[in-house]
Design a protein that fits this description.
The complex is a heterodimer.
Chain A: E1 3-7, E2 19-25, H1 30-46, E3 51-57, H2 62-67, E4 75-80, E5 85-88, H3 94-101
Parallel strand pairs in A: 2-3
Antiparallel strand pairs in A: 1-3, 2-4, 4-5
Chain B: E1 11-12, H1 19-22, E2 27-28, E3 32-37, H2 43-58, E4 61-66, H3 71-78, H4 85-88, E5 93-97, E6 105-106, H5 113-126, E7 128-134, H6 136-140, H7 146-163, E8 166-172, H8 186-189, E9 192-201, E10 204-214, E11 223-229, E12 232-235, E13 251-252, H9 257-262, E14 267-268, E15 272-277, H10 283-296, E16 301-306, H11 310-318, H12 325-330, E17 333-338, H13 345-359, E18 363-367, H14 378-394, E19 398-404, H15 410-413, E20 425-434, E21 437-447, E22 457-462, E23 465-468, E24 473-474, E25 477-478, H16 481-559, H17 581-596
Parallel strand pairs in B: 3-8, 3-9, 4-5, 4-7, 7-8, 15-19, 15-20, 16-17, 16-18, 18-19
Antiparallel strand pairs in B: 1-2, 9-10, 10-11, 11-12, 13-14, 20-21, 21-22, 22-23, 24-25
Helix pairs in contact in B: 13-14, 16-17
Classes of the chains: A alpha+beta, B alpha/beta.
């Protein structure tokens, strides 16, 4: 499972601020499935601008995950804008995820 | 879950001194071993040392998953050991930095399936045989749910069971709760459990190791000491239950001739001799003399002293004529001076074991063994002393040990370390205070399997070394010091007097003999003279008788008185000489007498 999902921004001027994220998962492991669902929901709800999400399956690319310093799954790394932040877990707590992504948390 | 268990249980040697003996060959192959222990008890060193040994000795590669420390910290910390880990790192030992950065934000539950997938790939890439999970609790506590933690541990177990790796998992053990904080169940899950402990015994840190579980294998179940040396952990292995020592009949000099004579010709090769005594009874001197004698025979010797520097000992011994310097320089003698304050008896034992292994001595001295009991309690020291003596017997080392006894009665006090019962020969040195003097006395309390003197002897130190004086006893006591000297002087005076008397008597007798002989000679001369006189006298008588008859004849003829027949006057003899025949005869006698004289 190696997917890239890019959401095209409605406003072309926002391209500079494109958000790049990478989510490491393990096949169909419950936490991984949950994390993917949670992340998509958070992006839909809170991400206004364009973003790029890469999903890396550790089972398929273990040595890449090793090189990227991934220890536990699921693991979300925000590469840009800087600083690089990492969130581990099934992303069930949107507040923490938004914090990591550098977004103002909306109270649910 | 399918297990790839070879039967019977195969083991992977750890290469850790002593541990492979305890565990009957090492850790179970392709199974999981749990290493539990408190902080600083040696879990990480133990695991890393096994990986390093396997890599260096058998070229087996392994993965070290560090949850607690950063990878480079692991390497830096282990650089103090002589494994050469920096050179081994990356390959054949891969250190996986699984330390979660504090900046990582957690949101919800996670699992270890990712890292296990990574490990699987890495394992296949480098054909690893070993894997160590060090400090996995650091990561798992982030789950904040014991059930989830347990689930992840079972995940690891299942993964290990399928992966044909020999695994070590370290886990923290709280001193208060012996069962371990959250990981008590792990002890049931794994095949082998090793418990490390670090505690203070009488103010001295003592490291202990215990195998509490080993499925399908025999193991030594007791608690064993371990120490950290330059090569990492060393474990004191159990002593074999059966004593198998070869008993030699070869005699080795105990130092000097008179001492050997007291022992019936020296001590047996491979035996242990205990010298007990109060401070200053010259235990060290006797020990030094034994060491010197051994070196002079060319036998490799190990001199272990406690709380006194080697340099100081050699200097002190040289004042009594024992020179160890040349033997130190030639390498026959190895001296080691240990400090007893901060180390436990166990650590000393391990150090001595290493020294014995490195120096391969035939003779060994320890001065004083009782110092080992200084730190760490008497119980441990007793056990160590016992094991030490058996260790030396196993190595066929002839050993002389000194032990300090404060009092004067060996029977009451020597049992402090209880080595007197296992020592073959026991020599006790004491002070005898009498008539204002303190003299050293040497007694052989026991000597197994040999005749030995029962005499209390005075030990005197001189510039040429220790010596045993002649025995003088008076009133059932051996005389020592000035009393002995007086007795010696008295004996000497008596002897001189006897000699003088004897000589005088001899002279008298010689004179008497000479006189008698002279008298015999004089008497003989008298006898000869008398005999000669007698002979002469007899001759003279005959001559006189003859001459008188002739004279009568002559006279008759001159007078012509009794002429019966006509006689021709022409045939008348001429008149006699003016000298009378009697005078002539007298002169002749005188002359002969003079000759006889």
């Amino acid at each position: 499972m190696h997917r890239q999902r890019t959401v095209k921004p409605a406003d072309p001027t926002a391209i500079a601020a494109v958000r790049m994220m990478r989510l490491y998962v393990v096949g169909g492991a419950p936490n991984s499935v949950q994390a993917l669902a949670n992340l998509e929901r958070i992006c839909q709800q809170h991400l206004q601008g364009p973003y790029q999400l890469e999903i890396v399956d550790v089972l398929e690319q273990p040595l890449r995950a090793l090189a990227d310093g991934v220890i536990v799954t699921p693991s979300l790394i925000k590469q840009s804008p800087l600083p690089v932040t990492q969130v581990v877990g099934n992303l069930s707590d949107p507040g923490q995820v938004l914090l990591a992504l550098g977004l103002p948390g909306n109270s649910p | 879950m399918k297990r790839v268990d070879p039967q019977p249980l195969a083991k992977m040697a750890t290469g850790i001194g002593g541990f492979d003996e305890l565990s009957g060959g090492g850790l179970p192959r392709n199974r999981t071993t749990l290493v539990m222990g408190g902080p600083g008890s040696g879990k990480t060193v133990f695991s890393l040392q096994i990986l390093a040994n396997a890599a260096r000795q058998r070229d087996e590669s392994g993965i070290f998953v560090a949850f607690e420390e950063r990878g480079h910290e692991v390497i830096a910390n282990a650089a103090t050991f002589d494994w050469g880990l920096p050179a081994l790192a990356e390959h054949p030992i891969y250190i996986l930095d699984a330390h979660l950065s504090p900046t990582v934000i957690q949101s919800g539950d996670f699992d270890l399936s990712g890292i296990l997938a990574i490990l699987k790939a890495k394992k296949e890439q480098m054909n690893a045989r070993w894997v160590v999970f060090d400090g996995i609790d650091v990561l798992l506590t982030l789950l904040q749910d014991p059930i989830l933690e347990m689930r992840e541990i079972y995940r690891i177990r299942d993964w290990l069971a399928d992966s044909a790796l020999t695994a070590i998992i370290t886990a923290k053990l709280d001193r208060q709760t012996v069962q371990g904080t959250n990981y008590g169940f792990m002890q049931f899950m794994v095949d082998c459990v090793i418990r490390f402990d670090r505690r203070l015994e009488y103010g001295v840190p003592a490291h202990r190791l215990q195998i509490t579980k080993y499925r399908g294998s025999d193991f030594a179940s007791g608690e064993f000491s371990l120490s950290f040396g330059p090569s990492g952990i060393e474990v004191a292995p159990p002593e074999p239950p059966q004593i198998i020592h070869e008993a030699s009949t070869e005699r080795v000099s105990a130092g000097f001739a008179r001492f050997d004579a007291m022992l019936g010709g020296g001590v047996f090769r491979g035996s242990s001799t205990l010298i007990t005594g109060a401070p200053g009874t010259s235990k060290t001197t006797l020990i030094g003399k034994f060491a010197e004698a051994a070196c002079q025979r060319g036998e490799r010797t190990l001199f272990v002293s406690f709380d006194e520097g080697a340099d100081q000992i050699t200097r002190n011994l040289s004042s009594v004529g024992i020179d160890l310097h040349p033997h130190l320089q030639s390498g026959v003698l190895c001296m080691y001076s240990g400090r007893t304050e901060a180390r436990s008896a166990e650590e000393h034992l391990i150090k001595l074991r290493t020294l014995i292994r490195d120096h391969q001595p035939r003779c060994m001295v320890i001065d004083p063994l009782s110092a080992m009991a200084k730190a760490g309690g008497i119980g441990a020291a007793r056990a160590v002393a016992n094991r030490l003596i058996h260790l030396m017997k196993d190595s066929k080392i002839t050993v002389v040990i000194s032990a300090l006894i404060e009092g004067s009665d060996p029977q009451a006090e020597a049992t402090d370390l209880q080595i007197s019962t296992i020592a073959d020969t026991w020599i006790h040195l004491s002070y005898v205070v009498r008539s204002g003097e303190r003299n050293r006395a040497l007694t052989i309390v026991k000597s197994r399997g040999t005749w030995h003197s029962n005499q209390v002897r005075e030990l005197v130190l001189s510039e040429t070394g220790p010596m045993l004086t002649d025995v003088y006893s008076a009133g059932g006591e051996v005389l020592m010091g000035t009393l002995r000297w007086e007795k010696e002087a008295e004996e000497l005076a008596k002897q001189t007097q006897r000699r003088v008397e004897f000589e005088r008597k001899q002279r008298d007798l010689e004179f008497a003999t000479a006189e008698t002989q002279a008298r015999i000679k004089a008497l003989e001369r008298d006898l000869q003279r008398q005999q000669a006189e007698l002979a002469l006298y007899t001759l003279d008588g005959e001559a006189r008788a003859l001459s008188s008859s002739e004279r009568e004849e002559q006279l008759r003829r001159m007078r012509s008185a009794d002429r019966v027949i006509d006689t021709d006057p022409a045939v008348i003899p001429p008149p006699p000489d003016p000298v009378t025949p009697g005078d002539a005869c007298g002169a002749g006698i005188r002359k002969r007498t003079r000759e006889a004289q």
